[in-house]
Amino acid sequence: MLKGGKIGLRARHEDDIPTLRTELYDDVVNSARAEAGPWRPISPGSKDPRLVVDDGEPGSVAFSVVELEEGALAGTAALWGIDNHHRSAHIGLGLLPAERGKGYGTDVVATLCYYGFAVRGLQRLQIETLADNHAMLRSAERNGFIREGVLRSSAWVLGEFLDEVILGLLAQDWKPNSRG
Ligand SMILES: CC(C)(COP(=O)(O)OP(=O)(O)OC[C@H]1O[C@@H](n2cnc3c(N)ncnc32)[C@H](O)[C@@H]1OP(=O)(O)O)[C@@H](O)C(=O)NCCC(=O)NCCS
Q1: Residue 179 domain-assigned (yes or no)
Q2: For the chain, does the N or the C end have fewer beta carbons within 10 angstroms?
Q3: Which CATH number characterizes residue 14's domain?
Q4: Whole-number Å distance between alpha carbons of 28 and 5
Q5: Which of 148, 137, 74 is nearest to 104 (CA)?
Q6: How many domains are there within the chain?
Q7: Main-chain dihedrals φ then ψ at residue 45, nearest 5 degrees
């Protein structure tokens, strides 16, 4: 397990799946805002890659987020779009509703940076988020990510076009253990 200050990132367990499905992916608003495509329900027993991890997939690494004190499931996190030529990857995360606003998101980003830069030797990490997702923007910026651009009206979300922000962090600018 990768340990941050408050959370850990571990492999997906079978019994994480029902909670992630009902609390994250059954939530139409959360899914529509966090994912690239339209919301669709996920059936129980589905092998949907958001829930069932393929350990042989080289382009992404998925984690379950747990809070360190009790070991309880707190959400999901991933490094995806891993490009070993350009040495870059994207970060994605989603916390269960009851676990938001406790500093876990900031800690998950920090721990994914450690995985991306120290474990995988990557040079650049990128986050895309809606321009009104202040908690995600702040979680990224607290870890040194810089706003690099705005994609105007690039996301169709529940009846309107919203802007997306791209944030990036380079290995040489990464400061492990210091967030500000
Ligand atoms: C986005 C998300 C991962 C952030 O994690 P979090 O644990 O809620 O965020 P933190 O508690 O670490 O807070 C980070 C910062 O955002 C601020 N913040 C938290 N919730 C906020 C909110 N609803 N509105 C505005 N600011 C907020 C905090 O005050 C903190 O700021 P600070 O560092 O200046 O004190 C989490 O809220 C989440 O899973 N949301 C739903 C899914 C999602 O949006 N995923 C990202 C898709 S790109």
Answers
A1: no
A2: C
A3: 3.40.630.30
A4: 31
A5: 74
A6: 1
A7: 85, -5
Pocket test for ligand 1, best of 138, 166, 167 (most atoms within 8 A of CB): 138
Q: Are 177 and 111 in contact (CB under 8 A)?
A: no
Interval 44-92: pLDDT, tens:
889 999 999 999 999 999 999 999 999 999 999 999 999 999 999 999 9
List ligand 1's pocket residues with C-beta within 6 A. 30, 34, 93-95, 100-106, 129, 133-136, 138-139, 142
Query: Helix 134-141 crosses helix 104-113 at what angle (to 10 degrees)?
Result: 50
Provide the whole-model pTM.
0.96
Phi, psi of 121 (to 5 degrees): 70, 30
Look up the domain containing 62 and give its range: 2-123
* 100 alpha carbon – ligand 1 mean position (Å): 6
CA distance 144 to 5: 17
Q: How far is CA 90 from CA 19, 55, 106, 131, 159, in A?
A: 24, 18, 16, 17, 26
